Amino acid sequence: MARARLPAAAEVAAWLEAHERKSLLRFITCGSVDDGKSTLIGRLLYETQMVFDDQLAALGEDSRRFGTRGAELDMALLVDGLQAEREQGITIDVAYRYFATARRKFIVADTPGHEQYTRNMVTGASNADLAVILIDARKGVLTQTRRHSYLVRLLGIRQAVLAVNKMDLVGYARERFESIVADYRAFAGRIGLDAVTPIPLSAALGENVTRAGGAMPWYAGPTLLAHLEAAPGDARLAAAPFRLPVQWVNRPNADFRGFAGQIASGSVRPGERVRILPSGREARVARLVTADGDLTEAAAGRSVTVTLDAEIDVGRGDLIAAADAAPEVADQFEATIVWLHEEPMLQGRAYLMKSGARTVAATVTPLKHRINVDTLEHTAAERLELNDIGVCEVELDQPIAFEPYERNRALGGFILIDRITNATVGAGLIHFALRRSHNIHWQALDVDKQLRARQKGQRACVLWLTGLSGAGKSSIANRIEKQLAAQGRHTYLLDGDNVRHGLNKDLGFAAQDRVENIRRVAEVARLMVDAGLIVLVSFISPFRAERSMARALFAPGEFFEIFVDTPLAVAESRDVKGLYRKARRGELRNFTGIDSPYEAPEHPEMRIDTTRVSADQAADLVVAHLKAAGVTGGA
User: Fold this and answer.
1) Helical H runs in 541-594?
2) Rg of the chain over CA atoms, in angstroms?
């Protein structure tokens, strides 16, 4: 290790034991582009003797090739590990670094400053106790400074350091420092970020980083490192009620069943009563099992396997909580969402929501407002674009245990995942459960879907015909229904044009309206399947995400996606309504196939090529398929 000797062999055990007892502080550095975040972390690593000799040699070589400090060492290169980062002199990914002093251990996340990488900053901030917000003394408070500060407060970080960097480039002027601090405090006060400690420094030269800066005798406060060593940790989790999200059911043999996870808050002892959520069943803790043996107590941050004194069905994603202080369970929330993807968030679109180890289907609707991070103004919006922040209502397909994010990050935070690509598209923070979610329950009925279908001599299902306008969906669906009616089957046909005369007459053809159009139709189709009917749905339904959402509403074997596959040129040649001609002239906006995409099914139950078969032949094929699938064959 550069400029330091390792402890002698006889002292290693004692040194490790003392090191283990040190408290840990997680913090992030954030701010606008080129404010010196990586340089600051590199300086901290160097000054705390966490750079090995081979790393120091490599740093010297990299500084000559990529550095911006001439013959001097460029500390930013200790952190910026990506080739693109070194070539551009910016941070792109989140870089985590570990260092320690005689008093404390630290994990620091260097987060990118560019707006397009805001998602990476959110990732780094989600587990931090403190934020170091850097400002270039030459530039002052910028839009990205405000954005990151707002996110810091939003993500539950309650203490911040305002590091006014590059003071050497403004002649160490006290007036410039105080002007920036006053400007920043005015904004921080508006967002509720009150615990801010301002420090003037030069990361490149090491002024006020780990040693007092002789060039700024007017500053009498602590150095950055001294402040980090003294900053209080977040004691909220230790004092909060016991919460253990179950990540794994530990079942090595027939004689042992335990529930493993990391304690999110509070502490627990054997014999204490706990409640399993969302089921609500209760039991007592029998053992706290670890690889090093059983514990008499386990607290927040500890990974442990819990065994219970009763046989209760507990699975991955469930929550084990203190029985006398259990959290709420709900399926509808108000939440703040930070949108992290190039494709916008659309109201009514279904996503996957991952909260802890639990994954459920989620629909974001309505979007109440979008937040302007510069003015903090709430503006009306129908979608969220990349890096937008908005307040929404979120509806789930099943209840989850939760706590408001302000109280418990682990139980109040979630991510949204695209159902088709599995990409993480958003990060959310739960505010509270919507009151109606506590009051609305499924009413138990004695006559169910199976009985209704048996009365009709068929198996209830939905036939979802999708394809371009002019593909022949309605013609084929009409012929299918005629054949089924002739067999005495009970059916109903939901046609795109017909539905827009009533149920969906308030919707247009923008992307968010198309999403809502399909959501409503899918819910109606589900009710009709519950009535025991064979439901035919004839809709363009251009987006895979919405067709996937529709499929998820039905039981296995109830949903048949039928792709009416017709080339655009052929569909356009059948333009009976003249819609394609209007779209080509620009008179119709958002027309599928012209200026709005059609996403063809990847794995439909049936594909009908209308260039090879007629509408009557297509209907014959579908009816035969239903018989083979047992929808009509058993009656």
Assistant:
1) 544-552, 568-573, 579-584
2) 30
Pick the CATH number of 9-230 from 3.40.50.1820, 3.40.50.300, 3.40.50.970, 3.30.420.10: 3.40.50.300
User: Domain 237-325 adopts which CATH fold?
Assistant: Elongation Factor Tu (Ef-tu); domain 3 (2.40.30)
More confident residue, 635 or 109: 109
Q: Does domain 337-436 have CATH number 3.30.2130.10?
A: no
- H or E, element range at 504: none
Provide the CA 507 distance to its chain's centre, in angstroms.
28
What DSSP letter does each residue of 287-352 carry, written as one string? Answer: EEEETTEE-S-EETT-EEEEEESS-----TT-EEEEGGG--EEEEEEEEEEEE-SSSPEETT-EEE
CA dihedral 51, 54, 60, 61 (to 10 degrees): -140
465 pLDDT band, cuts 50/70/90, is: very high
In sequence order, the β-bridge partners of residue 521 are none
Q: Check residues 362 and 501 and name the one with the higher pLDDT.
A: 362
pLDDT digits (tens, 9 = 90+) for 264-321: 999 999 999 999 999 899 999 999 999 889 999 999 889 999 999 998 889 999 999 9
Helix (H) or strand (E) holding 634: none
Q: What percent of the chain has pLDDT over 90?
A: 48
Cβ(564)–Cβ(465) below 8 Å: yes
CATH topology assigned to domain 449-628: Rossmann fold (3.40.50)
Question: What pLDDT was estimated at residue 81?
Answer: 47
Top mean-pLDDT range of 271-280, 342-351, 436-445: 271-280
Give dist(CA 155, CA 441) in Å, integer: 32
Residue type present at position 5: R
Q: Within a 10 A sphere around the Cβ of 124, how many other Cβ atoms?
A: 24
Give the separation between CA 282 and CA 284, rounded to whole angstroms: 7
Locate tokens 């991955």: which residue? 316
pTM of the complete model: 0.74
Q: Is 548 a catalytic residue?
A: no
Length of the chain: 635
Q: What does DSSP assign to residue 40?
A: H
Residue range(s) in the chain whose domain bears CATH number 3.40.50.300: 9-230, 449-628
Q: Once rounded to an integer, what is the mean pLDDT over residues 69-84? A: 53
The dihedral sign for the CA sequence 290, 292, 293, 295: negative
164, 135 Cβ separation under 8 angstroms: yes
Residue 351's pLDDT is 92
Candidate list 469, 474, 538, 541, residue with the active-site label: 541
- For residue 328, the cross-strand partners are 402
Q: 605: closest CA among 421, 486, 466?
A: 466
H or E element: which one contains 368?
strand 358-371
CA pair distance 555, 591, nearest whole angstrom: 32
The Cα 566–Cα 474 span in angstroms is: 13
> Residues spanned by CATH 2.40.30.10 within the chain?
237-325, 337-436
Segment 564-601, tens digit of pLDDT = 999 999 988 887 778 888 888 888 888 888 888 899 99
